[in-house]
Specification:
By secondary structure, the protein is α/β, with parallel strands linked by helices. Helix content is about 25%, strand content about 35%. The protein contains six helices and 14 strands. Strands 1, 2, 3, 4, 5, 6, 7, 8, 9, 10, 11, 12, 13 and 14 form a 14-stranded mixed beta sheet that branches. Strand 13 and strand 14 (about 265-270) form a beta hairpin. Helix 1 (about 10-20) packs parallel to helix 3 (about 115-130), helix 1 packs parallel to helix 6 and helix 2 packs across helix 6 (about 275-290). It is globular. The chain starts with a strand and ends with a helix.
């Protein structure tokens, strides 16, 4: 079957991988290269922060963690860390996917994958290309104009527009990269306000972050960057003297719930918010199952 995947971020590439290895003729259509997508800006900590529906997201997370655990190689490391809450909460459904899960007071500790997203996306794109996936770099304005037997709408923030779904909105997220002083754990104070997270990748550390609903641009704000650095150095004092390497902004495709369903000859898979990499392989498996 000829399948067109609209969207070249982590969701689109993961779907393309599953589809081409199942024997389909796959074309990925994207406005830019994978390194130019929002996925490339993500911090790469694999867990789903409040993404709905909770039960499906827990299952998708389990699939992705297992995939990353078995994949290894450039851009992927299994790493312990701590998720700090204001007070202890019931175990989230997704913890079944993680290793070494424990509570230390109000802090949940576990081991998960951390993904250096630009490295991983280049690797994933090269892998699907070598398996026979074609790439077209252009904007799709109407899914009905795509020449294929089946279309996968994995266009991220543009997925809602293509589906006529006005529930998708942009939520800006700014991060700062610091030089990695040799950190061996990640950290996130999810239960506190404002949130701070520190995700080490060997050469650099992704420090975040912000959630800015309705943000229209990706221009970094120096004051916001300074606040992020301050919070992250308080969270992880080992970063006190780490040089600042740069700052980036992405627009997350938020939706009240991830949409993954087939409507005629279109499979919609969008609205992952900040959890696209975490949910990618589980969603790709479900997309493949919907091809029939």
């Amino acid at each position: 079957m000829r399948v067109a995947v609209v969207g070249g971020g982590v969701i689109g590439l993961s779907c393309a991988s599953r589809l081409v290895h199942a024997g389909h003729a796959v074309t990925v259509i994207s406005e830019g290269k994978p390194s130019e997508t929002t996925s490339a800006i993500a911090g790469g900590l694999i867990y789903p922060p409040g993404t709905r529906p909770f039960d499906r997201c827990a299952a998708w997370t389990s699939t992705s963690v297992a995939e990353f655990r078995g994949m290894g190689g450039p851009g992927i490391r299994m790493m312990p860390g701590r998720l700090i809450h204001a007070e202890r909460v019931p175990d989230p459904e997704w913890t079944v996917a993680m290793d070494d899960v424990a509570w230390e007071g109000a802090t949940l500790t576990f081991t998960t994958a951390v993904v250096d997203t630009p490295v991983y996306l280049d690797r994933l794109a090269a892998g699907v290309a070598s398996a026979g996936v074609r790439f077209e770099y252009r904007r799709v304005h109407d899914l009905d104009d795509v020449d294929a037997d089946l279309v996968v709408n994995a266009a991220g923030l543009g997925g809602g527009d293509l589906a006529g779904d006005d529930s998708v909105r942009a939520v800006g997220g700014q991060v700062v990269h610091l030089a990695d002083p040799g950190l061996t754990e990640w950290a996130c104070n999810q239960g506190l306000d404002p949130v701070a997270y520190v995700i080490p990748h060997g050469t650099h550390v992704v420090c975040g972050g912000t959630e800015e609903p309705g943000r229209p641009d990706v221009d970094p704000d120096p004051d916001v960057a300074a606040a992020i650095v301050r919070r992250c150095r308080e969270l992880v004092p080992a970063l006190a003297d780490a040089p600042i390497l740069g700052t980036k902004v992405g627009l997350r495709p938020y939706r009240p719930e991830v949409r993954l369903e087939r409507v005629g000859d279109v499979i919609h898979c969008y609205g992952h918010g900040g959890a696209g990499i975490t949910l990618s392989w589980g969603c790709a498996d479900d997309v493949l199952a919907l091809v029939g």
